[in-house]
Amino acid sequence: MSVIQIILAIFLPPVAVAMGKGLTSAFWINLILTILFFIPGVIHAFYVLTK
To answer: What stretches pass through the bilayer (predicted)?
Structure first.
């Protein structure tokens, strides 16, 4: 995980997931989590990027 991905995962989680994994189901799940509740979106982004 690069520094840019870490910063994006904190401020724009769906963008970080899209950069790391592409427009897969992980991106869409993260987008929904971020829209509904911001913190779960951040946690999911870190989970997806470190996996």
So the answer is: 28-49
Cβ atoms of 43 and 32 within 8 Å: the answer is: no
Q: Compute the CA torsion angle 4, 49, 47, 51 (nearest 10 deg).
A: -150
**44-51 average pLDDT score:** 94
pTM reported for the whole predicted model: 0.89
Question: Distance (Å, rounded) from C-alpha 17 to C-alpha 5?
Answer: 8
Interval 10-38: pLDDT, tens: 999 999 999 999 999 999 999 999 999 99
Write out the two tokens for 25.
């189901």
Classify 51 as helix, strand or coil.
coil
DSSP 45: H
